[in-house]
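FORM 7B: Structural annotation worksheet

SECTION A. Query
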Amino acid sequence: MVFTKREKTIIAATLAALCLLVLDVYVLTPLLDERAAVKANAEQLMAELDRAGSLLQRRRLLGPKWRGMLAGGMKRDPTEAESQLLRSLRDWSAEVGVKLSLRPERSTAKSELPEIVVHATGTGSMAAVSRLLWRVETAAIPVQVKMLQLGSRKQGTDDLSLHLRVSTLYCPPGADSAPPAARGRPAGGGD
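SECTION B. Predicted structure
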């Protein structure tokens, strides 16, 4: 069978289009898909590398502070931490002239650094309350003001009622010596 020049051109164009279609389906599209997957994987690995780098940097920065907290005040025993906070609050309130009554409570939540919360209620002048808060904020022991409520006991006087909620941390005996914020997280964990 003899084909005319026009038929030969149509057959050649059809074969070329068919070859391009086969190359696209079996070579080009899978190659581009694989390239996109590799690029996404590389971006994910770079993000993990950045997180790991910042984690290591945070460990270098927090390590000395953590060791200082452990050496200077953070207790491993919850009863010691609680008594340290209660004793400190009593000493500070006596120094500044604020009358406090204290009620401790331990958290039952499991965490790397469990906390002990103390509810304090009392009375004193504005100057005495501000000095007490200054002592709490500049303490050498790990203590944090969780809640503060001030109110006037008598209108027009410098006699305030104080409701304070402070917490302290303790490092359980099973915890290692690295600060919790600098410890590694499982893969896929967010910050």
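SECTION C. Observations
Helices lie at 5-72, 78-96, 126-137. The chain has two domains: 1-72, 74-169.

SECTION D. Sign-off
Analyst initials: ____
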